[in-house]
Amino acid sequence: DIHSRRLSFAEKTAQLELTLKQEHVTLTYLQEEAERLRTQQLEAERAKEEAEKELEKWQQKANEALRLRLQAEEVAHKKSLAQEEAEKRKEDAEREARKRTKAEESALRQKELAEEELEKQRNLAEGTAQQKFLAEQELIRLKSE
């Protein structure tokens, strides 16, 4: 009876030692797994922080690109307005030049007409003077007869 109790005690002890070893192996595995998960979590947090920094950097670049695009659009708009103004001034200058040319042509035509009229008046005056001279000559001749 004692022998069977000892045997039963030895079996139970062996079984408990085996269970203890299994639990120790399980505990070691769980500790290693927990450490691995902690390491993974730290790496994930570092990767997340790095990704957030990278995202912030790209957002800054996108904002800078947007700012530059808006600035370029503003410059282009100003250039467009300046070009429109320059074209308007050019058209105004061309219109004024055409008016001036027409006025000059008109003045030249008026001058030509005035010169023609002056020439007619001179010719008329010469003709009248000639007639007066002839009439005076005729009068002198008639008086002398």
TrEMBL record:
<dbReference type="InterPro" id="IPR043197">
    <property type="entry name" value="Plakin"/>
</dbReference>
<dbReference type="GO" id="GO:0030056">
    <property type="term" value="C:hemidesmosome"/>
</dbReference>
<dbReference type="GO" id="GO:0005200">
    <property type="term" value="F:structural constituent of cytoskeleton"/>
</dbReference>
<dbReference type="GO" id="GO:0048471">
    <property type="term" value="C:perinuclear region of cytoplasm"/>
</dbReference>
<dbReference type="GO" id="GO:0005925">
    <property type="term" value="C:focal adhesion"/>
</dbReference>
<dbReference type="GO" id="GO:0005882">
    <property type="term" value="C:intermediate filament"/>
</dbReference>
<dbReference type="GO" id="GO:0045104">
    <property type="term" value="P:intermediate filament cytoskeleton organization"/>
</dbReference>
<dbReference type="GO" id="GO:0008307">
    <property type="term" value="F:structural constituent of muscle"/>
</dbReference>
<protein>
    <submittedName>
        <fullName>Uncharacterized protein</fullName>
    </submittedName>
</protein>
<dbReference type="GO" id="GO:0030506">
    <property type="term" value="F:ankyrin binding"/>
</dbReference>
<feature type="region of interest" description="Disordered">
    <location>
        <begin position="77"/>
        <end position="130"/>
    </location>
</feature>
<dbReference type="GO" id="GO:0031581">
    <property type="term" value="P:hemidesmosome assembly"/>
</dbReference>
<dbReference type="GO" id="GO:0042060">
    <property type="term" value="P:wound healing"/>
</dbReference>
<dbReference type="GO" id="GO:0045296">
    <property type="term" value="F:cadherin binding"/>
</dbReference>
<feature type="compositionally biased region" description="Basic and acidic residues">
    <location>
        <begin position="77"/>
        <end position="123"/>
    </location>
</feature>
<dbReference type="GO" id="GO:0042383">
    <property type="term" value="C:sarcolemma"/>
</dbReference>
